[in-house]
Every structure is written in structure tokens, then in C-alpha cells.
Design a protein that fits this description.
By secondary structure, the protein is an alpha+beta fold. It contains eleven helices and 20 strands. The protein folds into three domains: about 160 residues, FAD/NAD(P)-binding domain (3-Layer(bba) Sandwich); about 55 residues, no CATH class; about 130 residues, D-Amino Acid Oxidase, Chain A, domain 2 (2-Layer Sandwich). The strands form three sheets. Strands 5, 6, 7, 13, 14, 15, 16, 17 and 18 form a nine-stranded mixed sheet that branches. A hairpin with a 5-residue loop joins strand 15 and strand 16. Helix 9 crosses helix 10. The longest helix has 21 residues. It starts with a strand and ends with a helix. The mean pLDDT is about 95.
Length: about 400
């Protein structure tokens, strides 16, 4: 049986940055990343919109705010070092009605408290200087926001990890069972392969709670999958959006609302909405897995969420099945967008941790035991924050290795 100092489950960006940070601290570590797919960044990381977040949304002092600011700098540095294309193009957050102005002011103040320089309040006419086709009564320009291809970042991390002599990534290794031993853990794949490690890092994303339970954890949270569906503007209509246009988010709902994003490829993406998915990897409306569906709806916390947000949820589902309704939401920001300007552009699924009392966990949530560190909630801006999260998780493991 192969022996390791550290096993990392998951080759999304958080798992890869954790492994990379561990190896930077100790190049002699015997480390293996376990990934059920045949390449990196297949799920959350590979299906996000590629935004480098500034940190303006997050409560000062929260793990999100701290890790976003620190991770932002490390991500940019890594992209420069590895010649990965990125663009700090900035974005505007736009209030389209009077009732949103208080929330807009809150965002501005959060940005200041989180150390963002160069934020600008925009009048209705000044919005046009940044996005000529956008309407709003007031806005904020956030110069730090950027775009990058996170899959390319992950592919580079994969190659960097593989350069260390005692490190490897085992693709096609789906974790089936975890056994705690006196000296660490033994992880078994669905095909019966067994691998041993002194410590385990769980960055399993959509299945992180299941992996934690395999390791013997009693959890007060469960992952609830939410699908975000995207459209793209047809190339001949891409001039309607220069960079990124966001609405003022609903402070009570942990999603940012449908928005426009220029991808690093030049494509203009519109969305996403946020609908409950009927399976954890439910990228299509028709994707359904009975056991996972039942597990979600029988969770006490999810039923409370459904009762609390049923109106919002119905609106999201309506937009999911009605392209016309989706278009109408986008027209609130850019009225010239027409239904025929949009083409389907895939979907992603967000692993949203939900507690027993119906709280959708908004911050990063990491649980530590004797042999394991479990990353149980890493929502947006996890990709932007990944180098900081990875450094933090690596520090927890390095402390254990010293004992």
C-alpha cells in the first residue's frame, strides 16, 4: 500500500493550491492528490465565470474578506510568474431603483473597510462612461475586479505539483471509504485501490460533506447543490457590454443575481440564475438522482430555506425555464439586449453548505480533526481566495506534521 504524508481529496482550485502550498513549504513531502475525474477543475472551478473578485461584497473581518484580499494578490502574482493571461478590467455595480441605494452604500463602505482603493461612485450619466448601453440611477466602479481562466490556473498548478519528486495526482480515484488508523487514514477507491496517508485534506467540493462523514465526522451542515445557468451574447452583440456589469445583490440571499461578464476569451456571458439542482452534479435541468434529491429535501435545514426563500426560488425557476424572463432580468441592466441575442452557454453547480436551522452558510467553513482538515464550504470568491485558503489549510497540516 502506497504511503503518504498527506492525501488531498479533490483537484479543484482549492485542493490544488493546498497541495502546492504544502509542497512549497516542504518539497520532501510524500503527497498525493486524489481525483475521481480524469483531469483537473471539472466541476465548480471549471464552470465558474472566471471573475477575479475584489472583496467589496464581504463583511469586514470575515474569512471571505480576509482570504479574498490576500488570495487576490497571490493569484495575480502566480499568473504573472507563470505567464497566465488575466485582465484587471474593473466592473460596475449598478442600482436600478431607489430601494437599492442603501445596499449600494453598504457595499461602498465595505469596500473601503476592506482596503479597496479607487472606488468611484457613479451618477446615471457617469455609468455610461464605463458601459454605454447600461442604465441605472447610481453605481460603483470597482477597479480591482478582473477576469482569468481558472482552468488554466489549475492546469498550471497540476504541472507544478507533478514537478515535485514525491508528489502525484491520481486521476480516476473516486473515494469510496475512509478508515482512521493509529497512524493516519486509509482511503479506498470505488475500484478497491487503497492508499495510506498520515493526514487527509478534504477539498471534495460537491461531495465534501460525504467525504467528511466517511472519515467519521458528525456534521451539522449538508451540501445543497444549486445550479447556475448561463447564456452568452451572440458575437455580433458583444459590443453591448465592455467588461462586467453587476446588479446590487439581495443581502438576504447568498447569490449575486444575473449579471454580465466578459470572459478572458472575449465572450460576453450573462447569468447565472440560482436554482436547486436535483442531484449534486446536476448540470442539466433533466439531471436527477433520487438518493441525492431525497437527501437534500429531507434535510431539516433545506426545508427551512425553502420556506424562507420560496418566492425568490420560484422566480429563479421561472427564469430557468423562460428565456424571455431571463432576458427581462438582463434588460434591467442593459435594455438593448433582446431574446434572440442570447444563446445557451452551459451551467455550473455550487456546493452550498446549509445548517440544520436553515442557514445558508455565507462564509468559508473549515473543520479540523486529529487526522483530517475538511473544507466544508468554499463558495465564491473561493477561486480568487484559493491561494490564501490553500496556505491556511496547509498551515494546519504542517502543524500536525510537527507533532
Amino acid at each position: 500500500m502506497k504511503q503518504n504524508d498527506v492525501l488531498v481529496v479533490g483537484s479543484g482550485i482549492v485542493g490544488l493550491t493546498t497541495a502546492y502550498q504544502l509542497l512549497l513549504e516542504n518539497a520532501e513531502l510524500h503527497l498525493t492528490v486524489l481525483e475521481k475525474e480524469m483531469t483537473v477543475a471539472i466541476h465548480q472551478t471549471g464552470n465558474n465565470s472566471g471573475v477575479i473578485h475584489s472583496g467589496i461584497y464581504y463583511k469586514p473581518g470575515s474569512l471571505k474578506a480576509k482570504n479574498c484580499i490576500e488570495g487576490y494578490d497571490s493569484l495575480i502574482q502566480f499568473c504573472k510568474q507563470e505567464h497566465i493571461e488575466y485582465d484587471l478590467c474593473g466592473k460596475i455595480i449598478v442600482a436600478t431603483k431607489e430601494s437599492e441605494l442603501t445596499a449600494l452604500e453598504t457595499l461602498y463602505q465595505r469596500g473601503i473597510l476592506n482596503g479597496l482603493n479607487g472606488l468611484k461612485y457613479l451618477s446615471a450619466s457617469e455609468i455610461k462612461n464605463y458601459e454605454p448601453h447600461c442604465i441605472g440611477i447610481k453605481g460603483i466602479f470597482v477597479p480591482q475586479t478582473g477576469i482569468v481562466n481558472y482552468k488554466k490556473v489549475c492546469e498550471t498548478l497540476r504541472d507544478k505539483i507533478s514537478d515535485f519528486k514525491n508528489a502525484a495526482i491520481e486521476f480516476g480515484f473516486e473515494v469510496q471509504n475512509i478508515q482512521n488508523t493509529e497512524n493516519g487514514v486509509i482511503v479506498q477507491s470505488s475500484e478497491g485501490t487503497r492508499i495510506e496517508g498520515r493526514f487527509l485534506v478534504n477539498c471534495g467540493g460537491l461531495y465534501c460533506d460525504k467525504i467528511a462523514e466517511m472519515a467519521g465526522e458528525k456534521l451539522d451542515v449538508k451540501i445543497i447543490p444549486f445550479r447556475g445557468e448561463y447564456y452568452s451574447l451572440k458575437p455580433e452583440k458583444s459590443s453591448l457590454v465592455r467588461n462586467l456589469i453587476y446588479p446590487v445583490p439581495d443581502a438576504n440571499f447568498p447569490f449575486l443575481g444575473v449579471h454580465f461578464t466578459r470572459r478572458i476569451s472575449g465572450e460576453i456571458e450573462a447569468g447565472p440564475n440560482a436554482v436547486f439542482a436535483f442531484r449534486r452534479e446536476g448540470y442539466k435541468k433533466t439531471d436527477f438522482k433520487l438518493s441525492e434529491f431525497l437527501e437534500s429535501i429531507l434535510w431539516k435545514g433545506f426545508r427551512k430555506v425553502a420556506m424562507k426563500y420560496w418566492r425568490t426560488g420560484l422566480g429563479e425557476y421561472y427564469r430557468s425555464f423562460s428565456k424571455r424572463a431571463f432576458t427581462k432580468a438582463l434588460q434591467g441592466l442593459v435594455p438593448e439586449v433582446q431574446i434572440d441575442d442570447l444563446v445557451p452557454a452551459g451551467a455550473g453547480v455550487r456546493a452550498q453548505a446549509c445548517d440544520r436551522e436553515g442557514g445558508l452558510i455565507d462564509d468559508f467553513y473549515i473543520q479540523e480533526t486529529k487526522n483530517c482538515v475538511h473544507v466544508l464550504n468554499a463558495p465564491s470568491p473561493a477561486a480568487t481566495s484559493s491561494f490564501s485558503i490553500g496556505k491556511h489549510v496547509a498551515s494546519l497540516i504542517l502543524e500536525k506534521l510537527k507533532k
